[in-house]
Amino acid sequence: MPILNRVAELQHEVSEWRRHLHTNPEILYDVEETAAFVEQKLREFGVDEIVTGIGRTGVVGVIRGQGSGRAIGLRADMDALPIQELSGKAWSSKTPGKMHACGHDGHTAMLLGAAKHLAETRNFRGSVIVIFQPAEEGGAGALAMVQDGLMERFGIEEVYGMHNMPGMPVGTFAIRKGGIMAAPDKFTITVKGRGGHAAEPHHTIDPIAIGAQIVGNLQLIASRNANPLRSVVVSVTRFQAGTTHNIIPEEAMLGGTVRSLDEAVRDLAENRIREVAKGVAAAHGADVIVDYERACPVTVNHPDETMHAARAAIDIVGGQNVDTEVDPSMAGEDFAFMLQARPGAYIMIGNGKTAGLHHPAYDFNDEAIAYGVSYWVRLAEQRLTE
Ligand SMILES: [Zn+2]
Ligand SMILES: [Zn+2]
Fold it and tell me: Where, by residue number, does Mn(2+) bind (predicted)?
């Protein structure tokens, strides 16, 4: 594994960057300091072209190889989460209420490591486009970059993404063709009844009793409406109503999420939520407002690019350490927007036995750095020398 050995020399430096980013988390599009750090590093590496402000605070670097050829995009996300850190690490967040709980500090540092190596060695033709995006966590930063002309401007023909996965051993990768991450949608249902004295329910239209019926009926979408071979999750995660024990309130509000791996199932779930909420409310004389909000699409790996990504991973860690038919995750990922714009693939890299993603005790595992950097380098060289 020659690349892995060469990249191992970068491990220390990359982990320093990673810890610096971890200490200084920024949220959504407000990643100015992180973007400035990325820009400065790309300049130090002698990257040929650096463009900032794509998708508001995204940064793109172009590394040209020896001779003309195709262009492929490698993408990392830069944003942190609004969580109070409890990792206890020496490099913990210095900003109360913000932390890198999804490992985007590691993703950014690994792509910087790959950029450094590729800018030094340039063992390829054409261009490697390194993409650092803001607002992955619910801000559609990938879409903002695509809408800003990311793909056309740099002539990107294929695009690849990577995410760390707690629970998968360090030095392993996992991928699948087709849907690998779900479409994470949100819904809010407001039941409008008629309030009154709790001792006189016959003079009221009780939005709590009706809301409870709606919660029960929504369970039938996954169990009775959707094809059992096409997964969907419908979770009601909020139910807010009322102020005290002797008042039936005017309104109840239910909220939750729908996760699907297939656009047809997604449409079915949205339609059923609307029909069930309206039908149950009508049966009991209440009004209902359903607000269904689609976030990012299903993250769909394209077949050929999935194979290229798997080959690069196998070159680094061997076939026994690459799962090419991993179960999809019902979490969402806005890299989905980039995969709608260009063919590509999204791979998972083992983070070892750490706390889970979005947990306050989570920390990116620096042991994974050499594997992640090597994967990026191998993938770029493989796609741009054949
Ligand atoms: Zn996340
Ligand atoms: Zn993430």
Answer: 102, 104, 137, 163, 358
